[in-house]
């Protein structure tokens, strides 16, 4: 794992934070990028490649497994907006 740098891998200031994460979609994009830096990889079968579903989840194009980027994280099944979680970090 390469070292993470402020301004590249995470916001370096609160102003930058607000620019990066204006909506839950921005937060999800960021989580996706952290989890799958080079694109979706199925956690079930290891197949690289999937469709993003309308609800923000991914479906593996090989085995059909559906997963969300927040599965297994503190963001899973939370009703708290992601922007609030991110601000609390
Ligand atoms: Zn799969």
Automatic annotation (TrEMBL):
Pfam families to which the protein is assigned, alphabetical: Zn_ribbon_IS1595
Record-linked InterPro entries: Transposase_Zn_ribbon (IPR024442)
Top-rank lineage group of the source organism: Bacteria
Name this polypeptide is given: Transposase zinc-ribbon domain-containing protein
Domain Transposase zinc-ribbon: 23-65
């Amino acid at each position: 794992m390469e070292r993470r740098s402020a301004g590249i891998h995470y916001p370096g200031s609160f102003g930058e934070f607000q620019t990066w994460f204006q909506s839950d979609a921005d937060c999800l994009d960021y989580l996706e990028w952290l989890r799958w830096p080079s694109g979706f990889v199925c956690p079930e079968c290891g197949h690289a490649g999937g469709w993003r579903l309308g609800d923000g989840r991914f479906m593996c194009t090989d085995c059909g497994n559906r997963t969300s980027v927040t599965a297994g994280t503190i963001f899973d099944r939370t009703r708290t907006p992601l922007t609030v979680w991110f601000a609390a970090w």
